[in-house]
Design a protein that fits this description.
alpha+beta; Alpha-Beta Plaits; Rec A Protein, domain 2; five-stranded antiparallel β-sheet; 10 helices
């Protein structure tokens, strides 16, 4: 920028000097051409025409104006040159200040460069130290890993036989658990299939043995229906029995109670009507009390028998107990129906209610867990 200003000032000075020289040459030419002595000019004294007086006056006035213009121009030029010299001095001073700042910046840059070099060397030293420490740590870690691996190998060798036995035991236990689950599932399915195969059967309990010596069991069953629920015979006519027999089939004289009678109906609707009627009132036959229930499998009957004591106590307390298929107990308590699959569940339930537990002084009987669905 400073170099540009100096070139501009130099150009201005050269332009001023050139204009001044051209003006002086022009003035000299005019003066010489119109000189009264006639010593200068291209024409000779003899060939010179006569110049009118008004022209000479005009020329003199023009020369006067030119001299005044030249004086003004020289005056202005001097002022401009003074201004330019002042600006040049200021620029020179600024240039000196800038040079000093540049020198200062160069010194600072040199110092920064030296500091950067020192920092770079320090970083390099630190990096080398870290690398050495890292290498040493890797060696130590590898050594520790080798020692740990050696210890693990020794431990595995010492525990291999015991671990093998434990694994075999675990596998065998899992197999046994799976077998037990499968057995329970199969037992449940078998009981369910047996109960479903007995859905058309009714079990008659308490019928004396001597009655079927005089009459067949199907006739006795029809008479029982006629005596206790005649409306069924009036609606359906004759009750068709597919098969009826005592269970067990062989009489045991040591038993004090008569064997149960199993009757399979051909019409399931009639069987259900007889069963519902037996639930409403006790049946009698020739003065003897007989009880009619749904025929179920032996395991289901055993599970239902486990509820006997609890069922009687719940009925005394007015809990409206019911045995639902296959062997689920339900009671009505505090406006809600509660269901239990096993006596253990019922005992845990009443243990949470001290007032109810005091009323039920019944120890739970062992029973097989039954199905949760009907």
């Amino acid at each position: 920028m400073r170099g540009t200003r100096e070139q501009t000032n130099t150009g201005r000075k050269e332009g001023v000097n050139l204009n001044k020289q051209q003006k002086q040459k022009k003035e000299t030419t005019i003066d010489s051409y119109y000189s009264p002595n006639g010593t200068e000019g291209e024409r000779s004294a003899n060939d010179k025409p006569e110049i009118p007086a008004n022209w000479i006056q005009a020329v003199e006035e023009l020369k006067t104006q030119l001299r005044e213009a030249e004086d003004n121009w020289e005056k202005n030029l001097k002022i401009k040159i003074s201004h330019l010299e002042t600006e040049a001095l200021e620029l020179k001073q600024e240039n000196s200040v800038l040079k000093a700042k540049i020198i200062q910046l160069e010194n600072e840059a040199k110092e920064l460069k030296d500091e950067a070099k020192e920092m770079k060397d320090e970083i390099k030293r630190m990096k080398d130290n870290l690398q050495r420490n890292s290498d040493q740590k890797e060696k130590d870690d590898q050594k520790a890993k080798d020692e740990i691996q050696s210890l693990r190998t020794r431990v595995k060798q010492l525990e291999s036989s015991d671990l093998t036995r434990q694994q075999d035991t675990i596998r065998q236990n899992k197999k046994n658990e799976k077998i037990e689950e499968n057995v329970k599932h199969l037992i449940h399915k078998t009981d369910d299939l047996e109960n479903r195969s007995r859905r058309d059967n009714l079990r008659i309990i308490g019928l004396p043995e001597d009655h079927d010596k005089r009459k067949s069991l199907d006739i006795i069953l029809e008479e029982i229906i006629q005596e206790n629920c005649p409306e069924i015979l009036e609606q359906e006519g004759k009750v068709e029995i597919e098969r009826i027999h005592r269970s067990p089939p062989v009489f045991n004289p040591q038993l004090t109670t008569p064997r149960n009678v199993i009757a399979k109906f051909k019409n399931n609707q009639i069987k259900e009507q007889v069963l519902q009627a037996a639930k409403k009132k006790p049946f009698r036959y020739h003065g003897n009390m007989v009880r009619i229930t749904q025929d179920l499998s032996a395991s289901t009957l055993k599970d239902r028998k486990a509820w006997n004591m609890i069922f009687r106590k719940a009925r005394e307390l007015g809990l409206q107990p019911r045995i639902k298929y296959p062997s689920k107990l339900t009671i009505f308590l505090q406006g809600k129906v509660w269901s239990f699959n096993t006596t253990e569940e019922f005992q845990a339930f009443i243990n949470k209610r001290p007032d109810l537990n005091r009323k039920f002084e019944v120890q739970p009987q062992n029973s097989r867990e039954s199905s949760k669905g009907n």
